[in-house]
Structures are given as structure tokens and as C-alpha cells.
Design a protein that fits this description.
It is built from 14 helices and five strands. By secondary structure, the chain is an alpha/beta fold. It has a five-stranded parallel sheet, sandwiched between helices. InterPro entries: CheY-like_superfamily (IPR011006), Cyclic_di-GMP/3'3'-cGAMP_PDE (IPR052020), HD/PDEase_dom (IPR003607), HD_domain (IPR006674), HD_GYP_dom (IPR037522), HDIG_dom (IPR006675), Sig_transdc_resp-reg_receiver (IPR001789).
Length: 361
């Protein structure tokens, strides 16, 4: 343990140093308060023993300067003084002192008081170690819970893909596009990652759609289209009762990703800011992927045509701010399409011009 000693009297300082050595501690002896200040905040000690009457700075003034640094605020401080003035003692207590030694110092009293303070420091250190251990354990538990949540989402997405193998590829692309758009929108990295994890669940409700409708090789009838629209409500219903914040975000996306900025979407005809931001982002990513991939009822569009369509839809189908973020994210989106080169999206990419040139389109 290290004990800070500050006393302008050389004889007293030598005497205190010898007492500290009897405690098998290291004495950090200073004859001038300014010398202590020069070493802050790199100076490390466990207990401070400070004389009150000193030139330049008295003990209270010195302790006030020391306590400006967060690292010293839990360190015990003892004042050495011949002054029994209650005002002085109150000022010392307010500065952070927790004990007093009266001159002339009694060696046995000094050893007993400082030994007690060292025991207090040891107990505080153990408590701090325990608190740090608990924090680490909580962090591990939270990480494990998060990992389980991600696994559940992966499994549910996999289950949904058994009806339509293209669905799994579509959800992966939409997830990556959504994260890229969210980043350019200026959202926090943690939230961007959450959108990437939750976005694959946007079409989970399609598990309830009859295969005759879901896999139809042509345009849907009015009745079939109404049936298909139910996937938003079903998806939200599947996910929303979960206590997981990630699942609740997925429910928010699933239930709202077919709403439109102008209020002409479904299932609730929400408009503008009524639509959750997460759903506005995924709606754009979902639409872009749908346009640039082969579907049973259409060929894939070239990228430049899909981009032009989305830009034209700003303020009607899409949130204008999301469209702007999408344009800024186009270079990254192009790279994502290349990463999924074995997916249907590659066909549109190979027939497109350089999407980077459309960043400021």
C-alpha cells in the first residue's frame, strides 16, 4: 500500500516516513504542497496524511485541489493539526478528510488509525473487484441472451424459407441493404445492427399465406392480393408478444413495412411519421430488392431503373429522408449485391451501369 505524506517540517516528515515503514507500506513523502500538485493526476496513493499548516497552500486547499480529480475522491485523507478550531475541522471534513491526528503525533495512535484506514481501503478494493466481476457477469449474461435472440430470428427466418427458397436470399439482402441505409440516415451503430438482425423477419407472416397465392406464377387477383396483404398482420402477431426488444423491433417492421409515406399503403394506411422509422427503411430496401430480382410475375429491373423509381417515389411511396440515405448508400448497396452474386439480384447488377455514379442523382 502507498501512503501520501505532506508536511513542510523535515523532522515531522522523516518521523511520519519511519512510522509508515513500520506498517510495511511505501511512503510518498512531500515537503511542499506544490510538489504534490505537479504530479497530479499521475500520482498514485491509497491513504493521504496531510499537515494543515503549510506555506503557499494549507492542507485544506491542497486536498481541494487533489479532489478535483475523480481518481482520488474515494481515497481516505487524514489531517495532522495542532489546531482544535471546530471551523477548521469542519472545513477539512467538507474537503474530504475522514480523520484527524493532533500534534504532537502519538506513534501508537498514528499506527492504529492508519492501519484501520488501510483495512478500509482493502475492503473498498475487494468491493470494487466484486462490483467489476458482477458487471462482467451481467455483460456475459446479456451477450448470451442476445445470442439466443439472434439464433431464434435465424431459425424463424429459415423456417419461413422452406416454402420459398428465394425468400431466404431476399431476407438476407434486405437486411444488409437496410443496415446500409440506416447508417447513412445517421442512426447509432447499435440501432443499425438491430435493424439488420430484425429486418429478415419482415415477411415471416407469409407462412400463413396459402401456397397457391404465395407461389403463383402470375399476377394476383384482387381477392388473392387481399389475402397476401394479411402477411403483415400475421407477422406482427407472431412477434409482438415477445419480451425481447429485438423481436419487438422485428414486429414493428413486419407490421408496417408495406405502409406508404402518403398513407396509401397497408394494413392500417399510416402516413409520414406515423410509420415507424425502422419500417420506412426496410420498406425501401424491400422494394429495391423486389425490383432488382426475378419474381414469378416479373423480370429483374436494371439497377439504374430501380434507383430512378425509388427517387421518383420520394414523398409519395417513400420517406424522402430515407430515399436520400438510400442514394448515399448506393456504393455499399452495390457491393452487397456483388457479395450476393449467386443470388437473383446479380442478374440486375450485371445489366446495370455503375451505380456509384448515381450517389448524387
Amino acid at each position: 500500500m502507498r501512503i501520501l505524506l505532506v508536511d513542510d517540517n523535515p523532522t515531522n516528515l522523516t518521523f511520519l516516513t519511519k512510522l509508515v515503514e513500520k506498517l510495511d507500506c511505501v511512503a510518498l513523502a512531500y515537503a511542499a504542497p506544490n510538489d504534490v500538485l505537479d504530479e497530479l493526476p499521475s500520482l498514485d496513493y491509497d491513504v493521504a496524511v496531510i499537515d494543515y499548516q503549510m506555506p503557499a497552500l494549507n492542507g485544506i486547499e491542497l486536498l481541494n485541489e487533489i479532489m478535483r480529480f475523480e481518481k482520488y475522491r474515494g481515497k481516505p485523507a487524514v489531517f495532522v493539526t495542532a489546531d482544535n478550531d471546530q471551523m477548521v475541522r469542519m472545513a477539512a471534513l467538507e474537503a474530504g478528510a475522514i480523520d484527524f491526528l493532533t500534534k504532537p503525533i502519538n506513534p501508537l495512535e498514528f499506527l492504529a488509525r492508519v492501519r484501520n484506514l488501510l483495512s478500509l481501503v482493502i475492503a473498498q478494493n475487494k468491493l470494487a473487484d466484486t462490483a467489476e466481476w458482477l458487471r462482467a457477469e451481467v455483460d456475459k449474461a446479456v451477450a448470451a441472451l442476445r445470442s439466443r435472440e439472434e439464433e431464434i430470428i435465424d431459425r424463424l427466418t429459415l423456417a419461413a424459407s422452406y416454402k420459398d427458397s428465394e425468400t431466404a436470399k431476399h431476407t438476407r439482402r434486405v437486411a444488409d441493404y437496410s443496415e446500409a441505409i440506416a447508417r447513412e440516415y445517421g442512426l447509432p451503430p447499435e440501432y443499425c445492427a438491430d435493424i439488420r438482425l430484425a429486418a429478415p423477419m419482415h415477411d415471416i407472416g407469409k407462412v400463413a399465406i396459402p401456397d397457391a397465392v404465395l407461389l403463383k406464377k402470375g399476377s394476383l387477383t384482387k381477392q388473392e392480393y387481399a389475402e397476401m396483404q394479411k402477411h403483415t398482420l400475421v407477422g406482427c402477431e407472431i412477434l409482438r408478444e415477445s419480451q425481447s426488444s429485438l423481436m419487438q423491433l422485428a414486429a414493428e417492421i413486419a407490421g408496417n413495412h408495406h405502409e406508404r409515406w402518403d398513407g396509401k399503403g397497408y394494413p392500417r394506411q399510416l402516413s409520414a411519421q406515423e410509420i415507424p422509422l425502422s419500417a420506412r427503411i426496410v420498406a425501401l430496401a424491400d422494394n429495391f430488392d423486389a425490383l432488382t430480382t426475378v419474381r414469378p410475375y416479373k423480370e429483374a429491373w436494371p439497377v439504374e431503373r430501380a434507383v430512378a423509381h425509388i427517387i421518383a417515389g420520394a414523398g409519395s411511396q417513400f420517406d424522402p429522408a430515407c430515399v436520400q440515405a438510400f442514394q448515399m448508400a448506393l456504393p455499399e448497396i452495390t457491393n452487397i449485391m456483388l457479395d450476393h452474386a449467386d443470388d437473383a439480384g446479380a442478374k440486375a447488377l450485371l445489366h446495370s451501369h455503375d451505380a456509384n455514379s448515381m450517389r448524387t442523382a
